[in-house]
Amino acid sequence: MNAGVPLGLSSGLCWGAADFFGGVQSRRLPALTVAFWSQLAGALGLAIALAIEGVRPNATGVAWGLAAGVGSGCALVLFYRSLAEGTMSIVAPISACGAVVPVTAALLTGNQPGTLAALGVLATVTGVVLVSRPHTPARFAPPAVEGDQASPARGGRRVVAMALGSALGFGLFYVFVDAGAASTAGTAAAAGTAGSHGSPLWVIAGARMSSLAILSMIALVSRRSALRWPGRRIGAVALVGIGDTGANLLFAYAATTGNLAVVGVLGSLYPVATVVLARWLLRERLSGGQNVGVVLALTGVVLLAAA
To answer: How far apart are CA 302 and CA 193, in angstroms?
Structure first.
């Protein structure tokens, strides 16, 4: 089995757990606060890893990482805000439609998966679509914000629009990280080593730098209360960032060994973990169709692993 499959799957599950707990914190704190401080905590953890490993920077990898961070920074704010306003088990799968972006990029570049892997991609994407279908009764929806005069339909459309925006940002992140990881691997191969220039750590470091810059700019143009110190919740917020950074690294390493279409879909499985955690911890119910979607997604993973 290609190492990209377990690494890609691990990245998706890790993202799902981080997204769930990030969404929980976004119901208590402004979404920008959660996104900024979690990303900063992840950046500090990444800096320690870079110092320990002693990895020299790769200019091309960092450049691709900077581009990836623009997409992920905007996507995170939209995603956490939609998780705070909407139902997690609906928002998370919609955002996973970003898997279409790396699949499309892989097809356009001629990097097509085999028949079994293609069936796995199809089953996984179908499962994500089924999990995305609205189902939650009103009593499970998050409480309305006091003073909000928007109609439920308008609020629902806004949540869906934010979730789709985050999907595009995440999809671009997958593509740019894959390109950056490929560039570092190519540099290492040319040098005849797999060490200093072969690690994708600097790709993720570049992504983290630009995402923090994007979040800082958003904070400057937002109302003052949008970004504040999380107080006693800083520990939980920091763990979200460390989990997100760990998932980024797992995906970057998966991209160096796996097909972009396959790895991108596996990374986009994070809604499964988010939905399951929301079901267990928040008592959000799943419909029959969504249960079928989860089974299809897992079937797709098995097919991808066997490819």
So the answer is: 33
